[in-house]
Design a protein that fits this description.
The complex is a heterotrimer of chains A (about 120), B (about 30) and C (about 80).
Chain A lengths: L1 H32 L9 H54 L8 H10 L1
Chain B lengths: L1 H30 L1
Chain C lengths: L1 H23 L5 H55 L1
Classes of the chains: A mainly alpha (about 120), B mainly alpha (about 30), C mainly alpha (about 80).
C-alpha cells in the first residue's frame, strides 16, 4: 500500500512539473514571437499584469471595509457623547440658573447636524 | 468590469472622506 | 480535502495553460494586436485608479485616527461636565 501511495505521489509530482514546463515553454514561445517594443507588451506580460491588478484591488477592498465600518462606529459614538453632554449642560444650566451665551447660528447648525 | 469596480470604490472612499472631514469640522464647532 | 486541494492546484495550472495557449496566436492578426494594445491601455488606466484608491484609503486611515482622538477628547469633556454636575 505504501509503495502505491509513493508511486501516486511521484506521478502527481511529475504531472506538476510537466505542467510547469509546458507553461514555461508556452510563455517563452510567446515572448519570442512578440518581442516587447515601446508601449507594446506581449500577451503573457498583460495576463500577469491583469491578475496583479485583480489581487491589488481585492487587497485594497479588504483594507477599505473595516476602516469604513470603524469610522461609522466612531461617528455614532461622537454623536451620542455630544448629545449626552449637551443635555447635561442644559440640566446644569437649569439647576444653577446660570445664563450661558446662546448658541451661535453656526453652533445651532452643528448641533442639528450631530443630532 | 474590474475598472468599474475600482472607480465605484474610489468614489465611495472619496465621499466617505469628505463626509468625515465635514463631520470633524462640525464636531469641533460644538466643542469650542 | 488534501486531494481536493491537489485537484484545484492542478486544474488551476491547466487553466493557466489553456489561457496562455489561447494567447499564443494573438498578435499575429493586426486587429487582435489592436485589442492587445487596448488591453494594455486599460490595465494602465486601472493601475492609475488603484494608485488613487490607495491614497484615498491612506487618507481615510488618517481621518479615522483624527475621529478617534476627537471622540476620546469629547468623552473627557463629558466626564468633566458629569463631575461638575
Amino acid at each position: 500500500m505504501e509503495a502505491e501511495v509513493d508511486k501516486l505521489e511521484l506521478m502527481f509530482q511529475k504531472a506538476d512539473s510537466d505542467l510547469d514546463y509546458i507553461q514555461y515553454r508556452l510563455e517563452y514561445e510567446i515572448k519570442t514571437n512578440h518581442p516587447e517594443s515601446a508601449g507594446e507588451k506581449n500577451p503573457v506580460t498583460l495576463l500577469k499584469e491583469m491578475s496583479a491588478i485583480k489581487s491589488r484591488y481585492q487587497t485594497l477592498y479588504a483594507r477599505f471595509k473595516p476602516i469604513a465600518a470603524e469610522q461609522k462606529e466612531t461617528k455614532n459614538r461622537i454623536c451620542a457623547t455630544m448629545n449626552k453632554t449637551m443635555t447635561m449642560i442644559q440640566e446644569l444650566q437649569k439647576q444653577t440658573d446660570l445664563e450661558l451665551s446662546p448658541l451661535t447660528e453656526e453652533e445651532k447648525t452643528a448641533a442639528e447636524q450631530l443630532k | 468590469t474590474l475598472k468599474d469596480d475600482v472607480s465605484i470604490l474610489l468614489d465611495k472612499a472619496r465621499l466617505e472622506n469628505e463626509e468625515s472631514m465635514s463631520f470633524i469640522k462640525t464636531t469641533k464647532v460644538m466643542m469650542k | 480535502s488534501e486531494l481536493e486541494q491537489l485537484c484545484c492546484h492542478v486544474n488551476e495550472k491547466i487553466g493557466n495553460i489553456r489561457k496562455t495557449l489561447s494567447l499564443r496566436n494573438l498578435g499575429q492578426e493586426p486587429t487582435l494586436k489592436n485589442v492587445l494594445n487596448k488591453i494594455g491601455g486599460e490595465i494602465f488606466a486601472v493601475n492609475e485608479l488603484l494608485n488613487k484608491l490607495e491614497l484615498e484609503i491612506q487618507y481615510q486611515e488618517q481621518t479615522n485616527s483624527s475621529l478617534k482622538e476627537l471622540c476620546a477628547s469629547l468623552e473627557e469633556d463629558y466626564k468633566d461636565v458629569e463631575h461638575l454636575k
